[in-house]
Write a structure and sequence with these properties.
The complex is a heterodimer. In chain A, the strands form 2 sheets. In chain A, strands 2, 4, 5, 9, 10 and 11 form a 6-stranded mixed beta sheet that branches. A 5-stranded antiparallel beta sheet of chain A has the order 1-3-8-7-6, with no helix packed on it. Chain A has no helices and 11 strands. Chain A is mainly beta. By secondary structure, chain B is mostly beta strands. Chain B is 0% helix and 48% strand. Chain B contains no helices and 11 strands. In chain B, strands 2, 4, 5, 6, 9, 10 and 11 form a 7-stranded mixed beta sheet that branches. A 4-stranded antiparallel beta sheet of chain B has the order 1-3-8-7, with no helix packed on it. The chains are: A mainly beta, B mainly beta. The interface between A and B is medium-sized, with 27 and 30 residues.
């Protein structure tokens, strides 16, 4: 079945640093989405990307839909303590089904 | 503007009992999806429903699991004769009308099922 490889698995950074994570797939996706999940909660949608090459920002977050439609990356600038959590990429098929990556666990130290 | 609602938030069942998980989509959303998450893993798709129709159940186990989204009321994920391996967090998502493959999915807080 389809698989999304997300890296890095975890990151430990200082407050104020920039963060970059990415997702790659062996299959083409129609849409890429990025979610953040806090412990004990459901994923919260951060950014949705619909077109190959698209670059979209949401505050300090920037995400891009790769030209090949098989990858995406997420950048967080000037990290703050509340950025702590697990970040998931998800590729969406034409059937609406989401395929999730394995997650990047982000820890921010003051 | 209420988000996706799920209840109960936590559910404990003994082996062999039935579990019923409920999901009310966001207002104006007519598409509902169920996902399962094991500890330290990403979410895995189970089923996609519209009102009174199952659109895609390719992620549902063949036995003991069923889902419905009736004309009135919440969507229900039902697990019969639960086993320990069913212990997981079950998330519901909903999306607004739109083009297939481009509908943003918004998730509820999940139901954490523990089978003892």
């Amino acid at each position: 079945g389809q698989q999304l490889n997300q890296s890095p698995q975890s990151m430990f950074i200082q407050e104020g640093e920039d963060v970059s994570m990415n997702c790659t797939s062996s299959s083409i996706f129609n849409t890429w989405l990025w979610y953040k999940q806090d412990p004990g909660e459901g994923p919260v949608l951060l950014i949705a990307l619909y077109k190959a090459g698209e670059l979209t920002s949401n505050g300090r977050l920037t995400a891009q839909f790769g030209i090949t439609r098989k990858d995406s990356f997420l950048n967080i600038s000037a990290s703050i303590p509340s950025d702590v959590g697990i970040y998931f990429c998800a590729g969406q098929l034409r059937t609406d089904k989401l395929i999730f990556g394995t997650g990047t666990r982000l820890q921010v130290f003051p | 503007n209420a988000g996706v609602m799920q209840n109960p938030r936590h559910l404990v069942r003994r082996r062999g009992q039935e579990a019923r998980l409920r999901c009310s989509p966001m207002k104006g959303h007519s598409h509902v999806y169920w996902y399962r998450q094991l500890p330290e893993e990403g979410l895995k798709f189970m089923v996609y429903l519209q009102k009174e129709n199952i659109i895609d159940e390719s992620g549902m186990p063949k036995e003991r699991f069923s889902a419905e989204f009736p004309k009135e009321g919440p969507s229900i994920l039902r697990i019969q004769q639960v086993v320990r391996g069913d212990s997981a967090a079950y998330f519901c998502a909903s999306s607004p009308p739109g083009l297939a493959g481009s509908r943003e999915q918004y998730f509820g807080p999940g139901t954490r099922l523990t089978v003892t």
